[in-house]
Amino acid sequence: QLVDSGGGLVQPGGSLKLSCVASGLTFSDSAVHWVRQPPGKGLEWVGRIRSQSKNYATKYAESVTGRFTISRDDSENTAYLQLNSLKTDDTAFYYCCGPHATSTTSLDSWGQGTLVIVSS
Amino acid sequence: EIVMTQSPLSLSVTPGESASISCTSSQSLLQTSGNNYLDWYVQKPGQSPQLLIYLASNRASGVPDRISGSGSGTDFTLKISRVEAEDVGVYYCMQGLQSWTFGPGTRVEIE
């Protein structure tokens, strides 16, 4: 199970840090992805962080590269998404996701989502 | 970037009938392993998305066998047999071969 939190209202150019707490799965061995969804629109993959055994490698969508950073604290079973230089287009529900046990590119578990609103 | 397209973008189905959704990728999703890196997800009203089908044709845990996925390379299909009211939602295909990209979604409604 994944629980997202940290969303809220932020001004353009501002920053926010989202959290994703995992329970009931081998968090430290798993990658964590973030996916976002503007209200009433479709899904967009944001980025992912791999496990320690994969050197915590990160990968990001082009639309957020250089502005968003994914990190994790395995001791707390928590992953983070740092959002900087926010734009109004970043307004969305943000979901953290965990991989399928055998198809690791598939997103099998999803958080409930946390809403980020970028507005002045 | 691999671009995903879906058709139709909306679908109205009579309960008990079948529904099919097509998904096309701009590049082949077939790897030398024989796996097609194509998944299907559904987002039911007010809920987070959930995995339905992984690697083109494998049902995720708890998915009924009236839901099936097929296809290979660049062309894929999700079929829902004997549609029920609980199938209402938006269905997305997603490729996981090069980064991850979702299709635009297909809205399924019940007549």
Summarize the structure.
The complex is a heterodimer of chains A (120) and B (111). With 120 residues, chain A is mainly beta.
Structure overview:
The complex is a heterodimer of chains A (120) and B (111). By secondary structure, chain A is mainly beta. Chain A is 0% helix and 48% strand. Chain A is built from no helices and 11 strands. In chain A, β7 and β8 form a beta hairpin. The termini of chain A are far apart. Chain B has 111 residues and is mainly β. Chain B has no helices and 11 strands. In chain B, strands 2, 4, 5, 6, 9, 10 and 11 form a 7-stranded mixed beta sheet that branches. In chain B, β4 and β5 form a beta hairpin. Chains A and B meet through β5 and β10 of A and β4, β5, β9 and β10 of B.
Key attributes of the depicted protein:
heterodimer, A: 120 residues, mainly beta, seven-stranded mixed sheet, four-stranded antiparallel sheet, 0% helix, B: mainly beta, 11 strands, globular
Low-confidence stretches of chain A: none
Question: Distance between termini of chain A?
Answer: 34 Å
Oligomeric grouping of the chains: heterodimer
In DSSP terms (H or I, runs of 4 or more residues), the helix count of chain A works out at: 0
Structural class designation of chain B? mainly beta
Q: Percentage of helical residues of chain A? A: under 10%
Shape of chain B: globular
Mean pLDDT of chain B: 97
H/E series of chain A, N to C? EEEEEEEEEEE
- Biggest interface, residues from each chain: A-B, 21 and 26 residues
What share of residues are in beta strands of chain A? over 45%
Radius of gyration of chain B: 13 Å
Q: Label the structural class of chain A.
A: mainly beta
The count of strands of chain A amounts to 11
The Cα radius of gyration of chain A reads 14 Å
Q: What's the rounded overall pLDDT mean of chain A?
A: 96
* Secondary structure: helix percent of chain B: under 10%
Question: How would you spell out the order of helices and strands of chain B?
Answer: EEEEEEEEEEE
Secondary structure tally, helices of chain B:
0
